[in-house]
Hints:
The chain is an alpha/beta fold. It folds into 2 domains: 140 residues, Alpha-Beta Complex (Quinone Oxidoreductase, Chain A, domain 1), CATH 3.90.180.10; 144 residues, Rossmann fold (3-Layer(aba) Sandwich), CATH 3.40.50.720. Helix content is 27%, strand content 27%. It contains 9 helices and 16 strands. Strands 3, 5, 6, 7, 8, 15 and 16 form a 7-stranded mixed beta sheet that branches. A 6-stranded parallel beta sheet has the order 11-10-9-12-13-14, with helices on both faces. Strands 2-1-4 form a 3-stranded antiparallel beta sheet, with helices on one face. Helix 6 links the parallel strand 13 and strand 14. Helix 1 packs across helix 9 and helix 2 packs across helix 3. The longest helix is centred in the middle third of the chain and has 23 residues. The structure holds NADP nicotinamide-adenine-dinucleotide phosphate.
Amino acid sequence: xxxxxxxxxxxxxxxxxxxxxxxxxxxxxxxxxxxxxxxxxxxxxxxxxxxxxxxxxxxxxxxxxxxxxxxxxxxxxxxxxxxxxxxxxxxxxxxxxxxxxxxxxxxxxxxxxxxxxxxxxxxxxxxxxxxxxxxxxxxxxxxxxxxxxxxxxxxxxxxxxxxxxxxxxxxxxxxxxxxxxxxxxxxxxxxxxxxxxxxxxxxxxxxxxxxxxxxxxxxxxxxxxxxxxxxxxxxxxxxxxxxxxxxxxxxxxxxxxxxxxxxxxxxxxxxxxxxxxxxxxxxxxxxxxxxxxxxxxxxxxxxxxxxxxxxxxxxxxxxxxxxxxxxxxxxxxxxxxxxxxxxxxxxxxx
Length: 350
Ligand SMILES: NC(=O)c1ccc[n+]([C@@H]2O[C@H](COP(=O)([O-])OP(=O)(O)OC[C@H]3O[C@@H](n4cnc5c(N)ncnc54)[C@H](OP(=O)(O)O)[C@@H]3O)[C@@H](O)[C@H]2O)c1
């Protein structure tokens, strides 16, 4: 992707501290979980070294769980939600960051133990920030966000297990489940750009044209992977990126070719795994766990470097749309209902 222009340092006087700004905050109260907009001042932010003017955040499945209280995400209360953020450093007492630097924060405890990105301003630990890759604007980086980072980790895990695009005819397929969601859409785009033949499993056949545009060679109804998994099935997939879990993941493993690999990313369909050991002991299939949170700095950097080189800019724009943060509650309900297509970038200043 073309590098974006270097961010000029904000002139003195710009980004003047607003007296108050809105932030979306969850609190564990004796009467239950409460989440909503509150007005904060800079003095309310944690006393941490790097003050960031946030431009964009994003919506991930985990954000949906935190906003609605349907998942136990926050581990401190009160908590500013939002697991992703991109913006510009306003102040830093840490040598790694300076005023005017464009930065990115992805997961690593944001919205769990550290205040996150659903705010116009945030004070952060430097360990949670990295320089924004030159290839991306803050908005594009949030089009990727945790979902795209996870999709790249899944691709890297499959390749660490030995998978390569097949040149033979017909090339064996890589299955992607939860195809029209955030991780699924970006996994399809990344795999297809690298030359893999992708079979996209979706419960939304009306999105067939969208999935083909991302690069999927074949669209398959997700019901095909929903039944009771057999111990082993005919070998079909060279590999898979799974966002659904449960019977879907077990069915994928049962039909993965000898020596193939499956990257387990998500649980949109359930957290159980009704599995036999046969795929592992008879076919040497690998099940690769993907955690975007527990990922060391070297792997993190390698993944962003690959995203900068391999994420097609046009596809990224086609996959994402911008919404105002003020719509976070209905958007969170929609992502938990499996109704979000691709990625939602959140404009925290709207
Ligand atoms: N491991 C990690 O570090 C990590 C990081 C990010 C996300 N995740 C997990 O990955 C999953 C996807 O995240 P996301 O942000 O991409 O969410 P998302 O945008 O909501 O995508 C999930 C997709 O799964 C499918 N789906 C939803 N409900 C389903 C059901 N009951 N049964 C079968 N399929 C269903 C839908 O795709 P179709 O309509 O196309 O069927 C939906 O779009 C989530 O479980 C999330 O927690 C994990």
